[in-house]
Predict the 3D structure of the following.
Amino acid sequence: MVFATEGDIRIWRDKLATFSTPEAIGYLKSQGQKSLRIVETRENGVIKACCIWEYENAKAREDCQIYWSKWFEFEGEFVAKGGWLRGEETFAW
């Protein structure tokens, strides 16, 4: 995702924290979500973040995305441009 300002990414992170309560994390892990990571970068005045959800398998992804899709019912007041890629890890070190 590309954010317009530091304030926008802060609002986005706050919203993510709202969806990441200890109870929610426990539920998601019980459904097969292994982790959630955010990688941020700031270069040449551009703020970018990559959100990585890791699941045990495709069914776990489907089950957990039911929860994460609630995100759009509670839109935040931030400006961002995003894209999604869903796939399987084919290389890592």
Summary: Residues 2-81 form a domain with the Alpha-Beta Plaits fold (CATH 3.30.70). The two ends are 24 Å apart (CA to CA). The chain has three helices and four strands. The chain has a mean pLDDT of 84.
